[in-house]
Amino acid sequence: MSQPIPSTTSAFIHRHLTLLRSCSLRTPLRLIAHIDLDAFYAQCEMVRLNTPLTQPLAVQQWDSLIAVNYPARAFGITRMITAVEARKRCPELITQHVATFREGEGGHWRYREDAAERKGSDKVSLEPYRNESRRILGVIRGVLEGWVGRVVGGGVGEVFGGEAVGGGRYEQLVRVEKAGIDEVFVDLSALVYEVLLEKYPMLREGEAPRDLNERLPKPPTTVLEWGKEDLLVDLDVGQAEEDDPDWDDVCMLVGADIVRDVRRAIWERLKYTCSAGIARNKMMAKLGSACNKPNKQTIVRNRAVQQFLGGFPFTKIRALGGKLGKQVVEMFGTEQVGELLNVSLEQLRGKLGDETGLWLYDVIRGNEYSEVSVRTKIKSMLSTKSFRPGIKSTAQAEKWLKIFVADIYGRLLEEGVLENKRRPKVITIHWRTAGQMRSRQIPIPTGRPIDDTVLFDLGKTLLTQVVGEKNIWPCQILSLNVSGFEDGVTGNQSLDSFFRGNPGAKIAAPAAQQQGDIRQGYLHSSEPRKRRKVSDDDANNINHDHAAARSPGPIDEAEEESLFIQDNDPGHGPSHFTPTTITPVIDESALPTPQDSDDWAAIISAAQEPSFTCPRCSKSVPEPDRSEHEDWHFARDLYAQERQQHASITPPARHSTGSRGRGRRKGGSGNNDKRQSRLAF
């Protein structure tokens, strides 16, 4: 009996390759990496103190631990115990307190031996960690520029050791999103596209057919050489390693090579280890980076998606760690992805509504379409302190304002405030007394440069306004916040721009037809689907534990070292889940660890920008954005009036049996419900 003749064509079409060049969210060849520093704060102290790699070390804030290195974890030390208990478990443990500012010493932070006993007079400074984060980000960019230089300039030798070349091509080929002080997402799609053209001339555009729906040729290789640190997730049932690789596998291999160079350079230049996840979207890349810590990278191939997700609780997926996740668990009696796969789309829609049900149906099948946003620039800066007992005089408050100003101004210098590259528009003071939060804000004058004197004078003006009120002492929480950052001189928006969508983050809506094997699900999906608004609800819910606050949580809660509360990533969660509280706007200086209830309360309470609730749409809008939001409503009103007037003088259109114009296109039927069982991972 004759053997079947192997196919000479790929499962992918030329359109998929073309979309890769533009970092499209809709190509199954997409390549996203999540790079996460291992126990970052602890590593910073190990590098600073030059400790051996085997030395147990934890980072302390007051009597709590905010980071624990891996040698210390072997003794059962976690961030959930006190420093005293940790030293009992491991007498050799180094507990290094974070740097602090001190009342009366101006705006200078330093490491102090007595900081743990001086909570009332000291304020945490995370500046050492921010400095290291900036250095690491610089190395990441340098390595990626080297790769760009290779594909643009024809080769630069050893990539991570080469000079950065490529000019503006870097911004075209690489997108880096700083997701926290210790983690970044990188969209490598366009760079991988260029590498593919360099390595495989058959794919070059000049040889591509006119019909973009024509299948690509098979890759000219039957074996892919993965690196020693590349941990491949086992393939789904029905797939085999002996099967010839396709172009999605080749893309993963190229991405793994790039990320390996990044990680190697960070170690060789700065002595930091990091882990990475490589997948077709941010959700799976994030989960992957946490799977095999420390110092490894996990590759989630398209043929391994269900095997990978099947062993996870879906509460680890971004936007499912809070209220929505609890709802789903209660409704279906499970929190395992593998078991939820057996629930049909109709059941999910019936229980959760059309939009949320469809989103959940897609995301547990690995279909998630949030984009990597180039937003390493922060939106606001906060410096805050809680007091027990509360401070009782203006003189004390002014001492702390001086510290806040020094803290913020140091970060403003990094943002290029002296060169007018970026500057904030608003300064706000927050004041809590007797359980009541008060705030005052004023615009920062634009006619003169910003320096620490200007900020301190503005802060004192706001302080005077607060002090003029009744019952303001003792003060339990005091903070200063600058916000409304803009890049140099910004132009005015046209009226047209308001009709491109309500200001807010958007993601592409999931679709039921793109499920199961990615090779089949994308083959005929050349049309991009509609995009919808989304709000950060469960991922930004600050009432649940720190693991959930960090979005989508790693498997090991002890690994979650990022101190971010806010997750600005708009690309997750169903759109109608609107937060009922104001989301704090916090940069990476947010004070650590929910165990430290004093400063944690300060973050949650004092970081809230003044806002108003729009009476027309009931949305909470930051005060600096109020006029733009009102302008948006005004523009929509004008547009509606014009349409009404036009309709009143325009005769009704004749019915036609031909194709309709710009009407709303119907979505897929969503009847392809593939039942799958849970797979161990």
Automatic annotation (TrEMBL):
- InterPro entries noted in UniProt: DNA/RNA_pol_sf, DNA_pol_Y-fam_lit_finger_sf, DNA_pol_Y-fam_little_finger, DNA_polymerase_eta, Rev_trsase/Diguanyl_cyclase, UBZ3, UmuC
Q: Which portions of the sequence form the region Disordered?
A: 507-555, 612-681
Domain UBZ3-type, by residue range, is 607-641
In what ranges is there compositional bias, type Basic and acidic residues? 622-645, 672-681
Which GO biological process categories is it annotated with? DNA repair; error-free translesion synthesis; error-prone translesion synthesis; mitotic sister chromatid cohesion; response to radiation
Q: Which residues form the UmuC domain?
A: 32-321
Q: Which GO terms describe its cellular component?
A: nucleus; replication fork; site of double-strand break
- Intracellular or extracellular location(s): Nucleus
Q: Which UniProt keywords apply?
A: DNA damage, DNA repair, Metal-binding, Nucleus, Transferase, Zinc, Zinc-finger
For molecular function, the Gene Ontology terms on record are: damaged DNA binding; DNA-directed DNA polymerase activity; zinc ion binding
Recorded protein name is DNA polymerase eta
